[in-house]
Amino acid sequence: MTTEPRMQNPAAVLPDIAGAVNLLYKAAHSAGVPGTTLELVHLRASQINGCSACVDSGARAARKAGETEERLLALAAWRETPYFTEAERAALALAEAATRLADRADAVPDPIWAEAARHFEEKELAALVLWVATTNFFNRLNATTRQQAPQNWG
Q1: 52: Cβ–Cβ under 8 A, 6 or more apart, which residues?
Q2: Which of 35, 33, 42 is nearest to 92 (CA)?
Q3: Which site from 23, 46, 49, 133 is most exposed, i.e. has the minimal number of CB atoms within 10 Å?
Q4: For residue 7, what are the CA distances in angstroms to 31, 52, 137, 147, 153?
Q5: Are 10 and 141 in contact (CB under 8 A)?
Q6: What's the number of domains the chain is made of?
Q7: 3-state secondary structure of 134
Q8: CATH assignment at residue 103
Q9: Which residues of 104-130 are buried (b: 16+ CB within 10 A; e: fewer)?
Q10: pLDDT of residue 149
Q11: Which pLDDT belongs to residue 1?
């Protein structure tokens, strides 16, 4: 089902949002988490939420950050592939749990949190949680207003 956007992206309509988003981006990307890990987390959460605009921009950003096609193509099946490090797996598991909050009574179970904490310092964990929340924020804006990936892929 392809439909037209309902409106311009709300973040573009309200001028003060851009500054806030830039601060979130800067904070998440300055905490020491590898950029490729943040891009993978963003892309995986966007895949789960079915946000075509964020999946498109996320894949492009991941490639720009040095991510390989092989890993990008396997991201949805990250558990079943050998392409991801233990730290990336911990970040992806955390991202999936934090994205699927309503799927279980304990939204982010202790073992998922403990594994992430084993690989990331508190500041890095804060950045991961903030980045997943930011991603989910944009996924919800885009899904609600039916923002689409650009048609001129190139």
Answers
A1: 142, 147, 148, 149
A2: 42
A3: 23
A4: 34, 16, 17, 8, 22
A5: yes
A6: 1
A7: helix
A8: 1.20.1290.10
A9: eeeebeeebbebbeebbeeebbebbbe
A10: 84
A11: 62
pLDDT in tens, 38-83: 999 999 999 999 999 999 999 999 999 999 999 999 999 999 999 9
Assigned domain for 25 exists? no
Site of tokens 């929340």: 133
Place of tokens 């990936």: 149
pTM over 0.85: yes
Helix or strand or coil: residue 6?
A: coil
Would you say residue 154 lies in a domain? no
Residue 138's nearest CA partner among 25, 2, 34 is: 25
Separation of first and last alpha carbons in the chain: 23
Residue 153, pLDDT > 60, answer no
Tell me which residue range forms the domain holding 121: 35-144
One-letter amino acid at 21 equals: V
Within a domain: residue 79?
yes
Is 22 domain-assigned? no
Cα separation of 40 and 18, whole Å?
A: 23
